[in-house]
Amino acid sequence: MIIDQMILDKVASEKTTFEDDKSSEKPIRSIAKAVSWRVVGTLDTLIVSYVLIGEIVLATSIASVDFLTKMVLYFFHERVWNKIKWGR
């Protein structure tokens, strides 16, 4: 939890210029990627939960929580990786 907060503080506190950002992804692209990936991942979670539990209401609850938490985590994961120059 402390490491997560440190990463979030670092990403939030760093100001970038247009020159810095034009070679990287814009936050809106990271959001779009996070949402599209979470739709795919949530459908998978819903199906697996339903197959294992056999209750659609419970499977939907599990998939809903999964969707929200992992989408937020993915967004920040993308933003941190966008700051890393390795492999570019």
Rg for CA atoms = 16 Å
Largest beta-sheet characterization: none
What's the end-to-end separation, in Å? 29 Å
Shape: elongated
Helix percent reads over 70%
SS content category = mainly alpha
What fraction of the residues are assigned to beta strands by DSSP?
under 5%
Please trace the helix and strand order, writing H or E for each element.
HHHH
Number of DSSP E strands: 0
Low confidence ranges? none
Explain this structure:
The chain has 88 residues and is mainly α. Helices cover 81% and strands 0% of the residues. α3 (27-53) runs antiparallel to α4 (56-83). The model has no long low-confidence stretch (mean pLDDT 82).
Question: How are the elements arranged and paired?
Answer:
Layout: H1 2-13, H2 18-21, H3 27-53, H4 56-83
Task: Describe the structure concisely for a colleague.
By secondary structure, the protein is mainly α. The chain has four helices and no strands.
